Amino acid sequence: MPKIRTVRNRNRQPPEGWDLIEPTIEELEAKMREAESESHEGKRRTESLWPIFKIHHQKSRYIYELYYKRQSISKELYEYCIKNRIADAALIAKWKKQGYENLCCLRCIQVRDTNFGTNCICRVPRDKLEEGRKIVECIHCGCRGCSG
């Protein structure tokens, strides 16, 4: 008979300070469930995922700003959010690097997802784009320019 794997950290009690951020996290989780169940009629395949990317970004950005900018949550609470996948650790790691402070998603900097091996159009500064051009949206996440 095979051994049964148990997950120890998932059932652990949240650290002190969780009650302060829980209402916001629950609200974002409710928005995420609503976005996942939303109808995809009349939308492109990638366009139906944009609200999910946006909410994921908001949740990670909220945790990032509480820990790094405002220093209002403890390290234990921050690590709890990372371990339980409430916030995206890879995205937060990019936000700490110069030039990536406003990065919308990790897909926009992956060169394998583009035709010519470059970054996404939303990573091009707005002043470098042509003046008469219409509004540019990222095909991956719907961002309208996260580089500045």
UniProtKB/TrEMBL annotation:
The secretion signal range is none
- Lineage top rank: taxon: Eukaryota
In terms of Pfam families, this protein maps to: BUD31 (PF01125)
Q: List the GO biological process terms.
A: mRNA splicing, via spliceosome
Q: Which GO terms describe its cellular component?
A: spliceosomal complex
Q: Where is coiled-coil annotated?
A: none
Keywords, alphabetical: Nucleus
Location within or outside the cell: Nucleus
Family per UniProt? Answer: Belongs to the BUD31 (G10) family.
List the protein's name.
Answer: Protein BUD31 homolog
Q: What is the lineage of its organism?
A: Eukaryota, Metazoa, Ecdysozoa, Arthropoda, Chelicerata
Q: Report which gene this protein is encoded by.
A: bud31
